Amino acid sequence: MSGTLYIVATPIGNLADLGERAVATLRSVEIVACEDTRVSRTLLARHGIGARTVALHQHNERRASSQVIGELLAGKSVALISDAGTPAVSDPGAVLVEAAHRAGVRVVPVPGASAAWAAYSASGFASPQVLFYGFLPATPGQRRKALSEIGALPVIFYEAPHRVAATLADFADRFGAAREVVIARELTKKFEEIVRLPLGEAARWLVASPHRQQGEFVLVLGPGEPAKPDALAVGERALDALLEVLPASDAARLAARISGAPRRDLYRLALERKARSSDR
Predict the structure, then answer these.
(1) Model confidence pLDDT, tens digit, residues 74-108
(2) Same domain assignment for residues 188 and 255
(3) Residue 124 and residue 225: Cα distance in Å, rounded?
(4) Are residues 10 and 108 in the same domain?
(5) What is the pLDDT, as a whole number, of residue 114?
(6) How far apart are alpha carbons 108 and 89 in whole angstroms?
(7) Range of the domain at 158
(8) Cα–Cα distance between 200 and 177 in angstroms, integer?
(9) Is 55 inside any structural domain?
(10) Distance in angstroms (rounded) separating the CA atoms of residues 68 and 33
(11) CA gap 75, 95 in Å, rounded
């Protein structure tokens, strides 16, 4: 019989957040697949865990996953961990988990710390649905394009410290100064900060202290005002008129401003109308 692949969540800062089941699992396996073996050895040594460690990170994930699957099929059990939080969630590991499923290996999650859900639980945004986005694209143009597709639901983002100011500025440009955001910095660590404020105040808060652009960030964008039920119909009527004199992208942008309907939907409709007219 093959071994078992355990997906073990590790602390995101406070080492006391590693649960008893996670410790027992890490002690029971023969191999621990780590994002960075140097980081993980500190945690393992704290709990007297002497399992063999292997590196599995973004640069060697496919090759390392193949090797780990070989060990699993040979009957050894493996724990997959990341440097912090839940593996395979905006961290390496999904390739290994997929390979395990395809190989018929039993996959067992051992849940625990998650920066995304820690931040959302502290946000106070009461919504029956929430979207997890993870990291936005690094380049400004691609980031703004990605944000143009975000609607009214609350959304959880991860962000790097050197991009957080630019990202919050893009949030304010896209969603308006009144929409709220929770900035969660250095969760569970000594200098943890969690603040909820309108996007129009976010830039001022960020520069108020020289330390606030350091560390690891989770940004929780609060819910926005949903589009009115007839917004798309209004947008379509405006679009039809604008397409007579403007290119599709400009017509969609102006129709969205007039109606409040999502620009991406109007742009798709504009392209469809242009395609139909060119076929005639």
Answers:
(1) 999 999 999 999 999 999 999 999 999 999 999 99
(2) no
(3) 17
(4) yes
(5) 95
(6) 15
(7) 116-221
(8) 4
(9) yes
(10) 8
(11) 20
Place of tokens 């960030």: 217
37 domain-assigned: yes
3 state SS of 133: strand
Taking residues 48-55, report their average pLDDT. Answer: 96
- What is the band of 109 on the pLDDT scale with cuts at 50, 70, 90? very high
- CA dihedral for 225, 135, 82, 97, sign (positive or negative): positive
CATH number at 170 reads: 3.30.950.10
pLDDT category of residue 113 using cuts at 50, 70 and 90: very high
Contacts of 113 (CB under 8 A, 6+ apart): 9, 10, 11, 12, 17, 84, 85, 86, 188
Residues 115, 61: Cα–Cα separation, whole Å: 22
Contact 238, 272 (CB under 8 A): no
d(CA 29, CA 44): 12
212, 132: one domain: yes
For the segment 220-250, what is each residue's pLDDT rounded down to a tens digit? Answer: 999 998 765 578 888 898 999 999 999 999 9
- Candidates 141, 126, 72; CA nearest to 103 is 72
Bridge-based pairing state of the strands 4-8 and 155-159: unpaired
Q: Do 212 and 248 have their domain in common?
A: no
**One domain for residues 67 and 123:** no
At which of 84, 113, 142 does a domain end? 113
CATH of the domain at 13: 3.40.1010.10
Please give the tally of structural domains in the chain. Answer: 3
Alpha carbons 102 and 114: distance in angstroms, whole number: 26
- The CA radius of gyration of the chain, in Å to the nearest whole number, is 23
